[in-house]
Amino acid sequence: MPAAYIWVPPILTVTSTHVEYWDTITSTTAKMSARLRFARPLVPDSTWTMRRLYANGKRIYDGSIGYRQSGLKFTAYDGRSTQPRDPTMVSEEGESNVSAHRGYLDIVVRDFDIVGLGAPPVFEAEWIQDGATTHDYENFSTLSSGVVNHIVPVWEDLQFYGFPAVGQIIRRFYLGPLQEVYSSSQPTFTVRFNGWRYSRAYDRLFYLGQNHVGQWSLTAIIAQSGVVVATSDIVGTVLANIGVTCLIELGDGAIYVGSTDDQQLFCYYYQASTETLTLATETIVSWGGYASIQCLTPGAVRGNEADVWICADADLVKVTFTALGTIKSTTVVATLADDLRYAVYDAGDIVVWTDAGTVKRIDGTTGATEYTKTVPYQIESVNAARIIGDPDLQRLTDELYFVASSTSYFTNLDTGLTRSVAGATSNPQLYYYDGQTDTLLTRTPTFGVPQRMRIISEDGTQRQLEDFLVALMEAGGFDSSEIDTINIDDVIDGAVVDVTAGVRDIARSVCEPYSIAIFERAGKIIFKRAFTGDALVIDAVISSVGDIVDNP
Hints:
Layout: E1 4-7, E2 12-20, E3 23-39, E4 48-55, E5 58-62, E6 67-68, E7 74-77, H1 87-93, E8 105-113, H2 114-117, E9 123-129, E10 133-139, E11 150-154, E12 159-163, E13 169-174, E14 179-185, E15 192-199, E16 204-210, E17 216-222, E18 228-235, E19 242-250, E20 253-260, E21 265-271, E22 276-282, E23 293-302, E24 305-312, E25 315-322, E26 327-335, E27 340-346, E28 349-354, E29 358-362, E30 369-374, E31 399-404, E32 407-412, E33 418-422, E34 432-434, E35 439-443, E36 450-457, E37 463-464, H3 465-475, E38 483-486, E39 491-492, H4 503-511, E40 516-521, E41 524-529, E42 547-551
Helix pairs in contact: 3-4
């Protein structure tokens, strides 16, 4: 079905220039949001699923195979009475000026590239009724049988690196063909690995390795060959465990921030030009007097400094690091009633999950709580075998993914509302989610084989034509007792009708290809297949009293 544009805010156009060799290159991006309307469901509160979306004839989303064009962000509304106001529209127009998505099949697309898709594109969508969704788990083909304990996604390149917890093997996998493409040995005295990260700008892998006496240090290697290019001083107390980590590309290199289970905070500075690692920051045990550091989340990057948001006890702390890895400032932005477990940076705000099963959105400047919602799951402590990956290894767009009790949960970052899809694995392992492609990277429980999981929509349920005709006439004001169908056993995939036409005209156009007659008898609308015999055969003599022929 084609869509009609019913709301478009001002288009954001950005023009930038850069120099390549002796040429000045100018590029322009134009981002546009829009509310698209496709149809009105005939039956109120019926369940619909948007299966495919097209822009100027190009498929940009396909729920049947888990495909989503890179950067595409949208929310589909099926018109039920429970549908809310869209957050994108509310932020632009104000809540009192936005209508809820009730009674119509709508899609709100956000910040799509009208230069790449068309200016503006013609949107078309395929909607299905009662389209069941299912979890599609696919194993990767591997070159060896070793367990993959750590996964480092490189979402932009559709690949990831896999590593064992103990051992010296670097393994590389491609998401498209679901295949391991190479593995290489890493000669080292390290006996344990943790905190793997990849720098796409410098094609370097970083990991914290523990030696035989329990000391940790950071190592940088060339991703393609495994050659060690930089090592560092040891960090943390002997036999301490690594807590949470993150990597931020900044200045002429990168900073690697981490914590230990005895609450030490540390930061390494990687200088790309000299291939060196410097331990720039190492605090004392129980940094800031905190008993638990649960999450490190990269925030805004400004020139030669970057923010890292830290969940420390019940405090949300913003630590600003310089490009050299030193701490510039530390600010407690908010103190909540419950301890924090996990945080996601989203458009200047922080969405945090607590140990009390709630999610809150915190204003990144004032620390004010913008919403508090209860979620039907509990994010684990980092010290209790947490299976959700660190925030900087996920690529989230609108929702956070969490799996528990054989159910996939999706919590909207803008509203805090959570939707669920049943049928997930009952034994989830460490996982990372990509919101742009709706892809989950995880592994099998026993043998640690990498897996890709996608939630795909099935074909939907075919419907009886007679049910459609009855619903059509009821929508036109007829009571169910005034409608009768006889010998109509056809099934249909769907129907799109002209809402400006009367129900009689719509029914006539639908029935004509099926050789179905429409007539009235004693105040009742009757749909009957022709030449089927019995008391209401169409080729019988029409009564001169009470019979009105509509579609003979």
